[in-house]
């Protein structure tokens, strides 16, 4: 099965892949790690400028480790889910202290880093070091669900069966083919086998697709994420923006014009404190961590 699918998918990828900075020849493990943190729940178009600015400022784990948590949160700016900035810096500190400043190759060592789950560890090991690990993001899971299982959408959470299927389809050891296969599937899902409007006419393996062959039976997509507008996440972002733009810690009253509702303002501020994104100083003022 792998041999029948690998060549057309890899050929399609070579012709149609996007020119993304973290995929260019010679890019090291650290930039790839940064990109994987940023790409979690964030569109590629928003990640590219943030990634380039981050790598220019902190081109290595040691460079970021020397920065403060506040520096990381400010640089993250409006990319969303700012805890990722703190976890990335915490990982950089560990890499600098325990791994001679080099992003580890081993899955277990990667998984021990803050903010690095199963997917991120596999992606770093595969794309940075050519290790033979299945990389199962949302796009890859959807492609394999349709292509092999004949269902429009994969289950809500990654199953043991999905993991076993992905591993069985990996090309052989001792080459970077497995990494190319994974990133090609990822790109196919992003550009062709999309969630709601797949372009089956442009798919290089349409003739082998179980879902297409069955007449594209409808399935149930995963639950949509909560709307951002008006959400508590938006309110937390508004409070963080005040602190990012301030040169010094600010009094609690500085947030009143941003969120007039005292109950919602207090809840958002408490959530930021719980996440370690802000801190209350002895005088009662609020600051980013490390400021």
Q: Tell me the name of the CATH homologous superfamily of the domain at 19-129.
A: Hypothetical protein, domain 2
CATH architecture of the domain at 19-129: Orthogonal Bundle
Strand order of the largest sheet: 1-2
State the separation between the terminal residues, measured CA to CA.
Answer: 55 Å
Query: What is the CATH C-level name of the domain at 19-129?
Result: Mainly Alpha
**If you average the pLDDT, what whole number results?**
94
Q: List the helices and strands in order.
A: HHHHHHHHHHHHHHEE
Helix content: 40-55%
Low-confidence stretches: none
**What is the CATH topology descriptor of the domain at 19-129?**
Endonuclease III, domain 1
Summed up, the helix count is 14
Q: Which structural class do you get from the secondary structure elements?
A: mainly alpha
Total beta strands:
2
Quick rundown:
By secondary structure, this protein is an all-alpha fold. It has helices at residues 2-16, 29-39, 44-57, 61-65, 69-76, 83-98, 107-111, 118-129, 138-149, 160-169, 177-191, 210-213, 232-244, 262-274; strands spanning 279-280, 286-287. Among the domains are: 19-129, Endonuclease III, domain 1 (Orthogonal Bundle); 232-287.
Would you kindly provide a written description of the structure presented here, covering whatever features stand out?
- The chain contains 14 helices and two strands; from the N terminus they run ααααααααααααααββ.
- Strands 1-2 form a two-stranded antiparallel ribbon.
- It has 291 residues and is an all-alpha fold.
- Among the domains are: 111 residues, Hypothetical protein, domain 2 (Endonuclease III, domain 1), CATH 1.10.340.30; 56 residues.
- The model has no long low-confidence stretch (mean pLDDT 94).
- α2 packs across α3, α2 packs antiparallel against α8 and α9 crosses α11.
- β1 and β2 form a beta hairpin.
């Amino acid at each position: 099965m792998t041999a029948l699918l690998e060549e057309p998918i890899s050929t399609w990828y070579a012709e149609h892949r996007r020119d993304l900075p973290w995929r260019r020849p010679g890019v090291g493990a650290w930039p790839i790690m940064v990109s994987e943190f940023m790409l979690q729940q964030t569109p590629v178009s928003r990640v590219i400028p943030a990634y380039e600015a981050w790598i220019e400022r902190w081109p290595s784990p040691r460079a970021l480790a020397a920065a403060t948590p506040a520096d990381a949160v400010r640089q993250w700016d409006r990319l969303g889910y700012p805890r990722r900035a703190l976890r990335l810096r915490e990982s950089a500190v560990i890499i600098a202290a325990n791994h001679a400043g080099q992003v580890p190759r081993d899955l277990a060592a990667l998984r021990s880093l803050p903010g690095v789950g199963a997917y991120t560890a596999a992606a770093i090991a595969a794309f940075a070091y050519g290790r033979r690990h299945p990389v199962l993001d949302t796009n890859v899971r959807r492609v394999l669900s349709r292509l092999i299982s004949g269902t429009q959408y994969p289950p809500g959470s990654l199953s043991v069966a999905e993991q076993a299927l992905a591993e069985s389809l990996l090309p052989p050891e001792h080459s970077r083919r497995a990494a190319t296969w994974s990133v090609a599937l990822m790109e196919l899902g992003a550009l062709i086998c999309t969630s709601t409007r797949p372009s089956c006419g442009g798919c290089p393996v349409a003739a082998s697709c179980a879902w297409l062959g069955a007449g594209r039976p409808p399935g149930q997509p995963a639950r949509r994420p909560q709307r951002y507008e008006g959400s508590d996440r938006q309110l937390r972002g508004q409070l963080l923006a005040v602190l990012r733009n301030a040169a010094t810690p600010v009094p609690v009253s500085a947030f009143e014009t941003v969120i007039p509702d005292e109950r919602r303002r207090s809840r958002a501020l408490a959530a930021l404190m719980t996440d370690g994104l802000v801190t209350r100083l002895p005088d009662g003022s609020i600051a980013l961590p490390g400021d």
